[in-house]
Amino acid sequence: MTTTTDAPAAATERGLNRLDAVTAHVRAVLARGGADMAQLGVPDRRTDDTGDAWDRIAAPKARAAQAAWKNSMIDAAHEEYLRFRFADLDDNQSPNKLRQWLDTLLAAKKSGGRPSHLNAIMPGNVGSGKTTALCALGNEAADMGLRALMVKHSAYLTWRRPDSAPHNLTTHQVRTRFITCDLLILDEVCGEMDTVASEFARRETIDLIDARVAAGRPTAYSTNLHRRRTKERPLPGIAEILGERFLSRMEHSAFLVPVVGPDRRRPAQQLDW
Description:
By secondary structure, the protein is an alpha/beta fold. It has helices at about 25-30, 55, 60-75, 95-110, 130-145, 155-160, 170-180, 200-215, 240, 245-250, and strands at about 120-125, 150, 185, 220-225, 255. Strands 2-3-4-1-5 form a five-stranded parallel sheet. InterPro entries: P-loop_NTPase (IPR027417).
């Protein structure tokens, strides 16, 4: 006697994926990681409507750059600044200078060369709008596909100590992240420092900037301090706090973008207390 049985259903008929199938979930994971989806035959849906930026860099990599920028802004507690662009700045914040500098950074990135000005220094009094201007710069840079990161100087120094960084990053990963990004915005240089910095702070700051200068990677700085103490300005400056060596690295191939203006956070009517 012979018996017959139905042949087992194909894997796809039973709701399973073929071993060589690239599912929508896998494609999404690859895209978030910056993979070149064109290699999988997935059309780039953004090339038609995003203009020249996507000619310079693959769309998935640009999306990854935007995600990295946004995450750094969240870590810096500046998420509310993600909405600012050059068009939102006033003349005191020098949007045209920042736009021209960004154009040179994009051209250098495309050609593999070094920008004519490697660093931008934005000094100004407390509340004058420095951080807003540099966040607008970072937002525009990320929109154009550059891997920009924002970090406060004091936060970087804290994260370089063991078990102090967010997301369980090691001290080595923290250093690598901020050395290798296309554009670093180092906010509030010497913030919370009113005397000579510790040996640790000097060493870590100089190491970061030395590595970026050597690699030709641009950095934008904001600070409330002057470059050094003078008779007219008796308070300690950058040179007194972090040393002449750091000041030299900071000013290497740099241009100045001072922000002059009143404290924008101060209420129109002074509080009586």
